[in-house]
Design goal:
single chain, about 150 residues, mainly alpha, NinB fold, two-stranded antiparallel ribbon, 5 helices, 4 strands
């Protein structure tokens, strides 16, 4: 069976979702929850992280890879938006930030993260080359990221 996804925007879609559940084979699963970030938001945020990695900006004494910038931005955004930061001792005694998952972010939360990341880049003189190349130029210039 092919995976189906329904965004509950009206009664017709809701009925279609109910019918799909009724007709689903045994062993299928159903999840109901808020819409999570979009693929476009994901690509936009990763382009920003790539731009940071390619820039000359350093953090804590060295240049950082895109995945490291992702961790730094998500952690900082959590603090900036009064979220909970959970620093724990890791399995080998190292400090670990148990940060929120970007994959589980709502569209609104992901938009806030992107806005925060763009502001960070602006404040630190990082040109968003990859972001522009990826087709996010208008969003980056207009700050419309939702």
């Amino acid at each position: 069976m092919e995976k189906q996804r329904f965004t509950l925007i009206n009664d017709k879609v809701r009925r279609n979702a109910v019918n799909a559940v009724i007709q689903a084979a045994e062993g299928c699963s159903v999840a109901i929850g808020p819409i999570t970030r979009s693929g476009g938001q994901n690509a936009f945020f990763h382009a920003i992280c790539t731009d940071l990695a390619r820039s000359s900006l350093t953090w804590d004494g060295k240049r950082r890879k895109a995945d490291e910038w992702k961790v730094l931005l998500v952690s900082a955004h959590t603090v900036a938006t009064d979220g909970e930061v959970d620093l724990v001792t890791g399995l080998e005694g190292e400090p670990v930030n148990i940060r929120e998952s970007t994959a589980r972010m709502s569209v609104k939360r992901a938009a806030s993260l992107i806005t925060y990341a763009i502001a960070f880049c602006d404040a630190n003189g990082v040109h968003l080359t990859e972001t522009i190349r990826g087709g996010f130029h208008e969003a980056a210039n207009d700050r419309r990221v939702a």
